[in-house]
Structures are given as C-alpha cells and as structure tokens.
Amino acid sequence: MSEARNTERVMRMSEGFSWEGASDAPYKEEGTHFRDVRRVNLAGMLGEQAAFHLRYFEIKAGGYTSKEHHEHVHVIFVVRGEGDILLGEKWQPLKFGDVAYVPPGMTHQMRNDFREPFGFLCVVDAVRDKPVVEGESEFDSICGE
Amino acid sequence: MSEARNTERVMRMSEGFSWEGASDAPYKEEGTHFRDVRRVNLAGMLGEQAAFHLRYFEIKAGGYTSKEHHEHVHVIFVVRGEGDILLGEKWQPLKFGDVAYVPPGMTHQMRNDFREPFGFLCVVDAVRDKPVVEGESEFDSICGE
Fold first, then answer.
1. Would the CB atoms of B10 and A85 count as touching at under 8 Å?
2. pTM of the entire structure?
3. How many domains does chain B have?
4. pLDDT tens digits, residue range B8-64?
5. ipTM, 2 dp
6. How many Cα atoms sit within 13 Å of A67 on the Cβ side?
7. Chain A residues lying within 8 Å of B23, measured CB to CB
8. Of the candidates B108, B109, B138, B121, which has an alpha carbon nearest to the alpha carbon of residue B39?
C-alpha cells in the first residue's frame, strides 16, 4: 500500500501478530548487529496526519536488535512474550504491558532470551534523526530508523 | 509525579492494567456524554522530548467515551478485551491487537457492550486541538483531550 491513507481504517490483527494491509518486513535472518527481527508499520507512514509513527517489532527466540543511540526518543509498550532492554549500561526485563522510555542519546538494545516471540510497539516522532549503531556500522539499523 | 522525566525508565504493569508511578485518573462514574472510563498517562506528558502522547484508556462493561471530533488524529491499539468504535456513522468491532485510525474531523466514539473491561492505547500528537463533543457540550471531553 503506497497511497496516502488519511482516511479512517481498522486493521484487524490475525494469528501470529499480523495485520492485513500492513507491510510486514522480513529482515535478514542474521546480520552482524541484529538478528531475527520483524517489523510492521502500523500507523503514521502512509500519509496520515500524525506527528508520530507506530510500529510493531518482534524478536524471535535468540534474536536481538541493534545496539544503538539517536536523538529521537523511543516509547515502547510490550504486547507479546517477554524480553530484555538495555538502557545505558543496565539490562532490564520487560513483559506484557510494561512501558519503556528511551531518552535522547541513550544507548539501547532489545533482546529475546526466551522461547516465545517478544513483540512490542515502538512509537517515535515522525521527523527524527538516523540511529547510530554501536560496535558495527556497516549495516543499517532497524529499530528506530 | 510532576517532575520532568526526560530520563530512561521502565514502568511495569501490574494486575488490572495499572502502572506504578503513572497517574490513573478515575473519571466520573457517570456523566451525560461518557461513562465508566479510566485513563492512564503512560508517556509524553512528563517532560519527555516526544512529539506525541501515549495514553491507556479503559472502558468498563456498559461504558462509553464521548462522541466527538477534532482536527488531531487518533491511533488506537487494543490491549484488553473487546469493544466497538464509531468511525463516522459506522460502528466497527475491535479486539486485542486491532489498530484503528481516526482521521482529522471524523466523528468517533468507543463503547463496551461486553462483560470484561475494554482497554486500548491511544496515541495523539503532543500539540493538538480540543475535542468538540457532539450532542452535549457542557462537560469536557475525556478521550482525545
């Protein structure tokens, strides 16, 4: 769907946390700085008149997102499974319903050391800077871009 | 919590969809244009550097939000129970994981005709216009303000 979508809509979730009509991007199964992450753009990127974007990220068992930082903030709300978030130098557990706030410039990463998929909403400003991946920089970052 | 909160944080959800440290506003049990709705401000209203606000709304069995419209948009993600949303003149069902987009100026309302609480996240621009309640206007609107 590439057309502008500033009209009302309801996107129903089906089994496996998929939404009809939403782009579901299968990222590389393995990379040097992220692993086993899928991303679904839910709102804000299709011509909607919003100052924010709403995305769903899901990390498979054993997967992780890029370790990165940027000036824009993340607001995260967990909707599936459990995992951990690195905020600065401290890992903290997250489960369904937990909210995490990543302030400007803070190094962060998400990982799933559990058996079930770890899924979370991530809200960001529509206008934002590009993430800086820490450790390796040859690939684009995926969470927060 | 009234201090600025532009630092990292994790807010854990406890039973009954409550978050320690978050304001949980018990709205009037009964009003003329809304009924049995609670609201929790989760992110964006405490000094965070974000262009959006993330709120959790919950409608008890038999409750409903204001029928209203405004120029700012709503992005809704259901996280508890099920309910219905009015978009324009059409009621549509919503359940866990469903996403609804309310475009500028569209009349909308949420209701819960089920036995369990109906809870949803609602993301809005940080800077936004005030809702116009339809039908009755003597009370402030609660969802979208």
1. yes
2. 0.89
3. 1
4. 999 999 988 999 888 777 554 456 678 888 999 999 988 899 999 999 999 999 999
5. 0.89
6. 12
7. none
8. B121
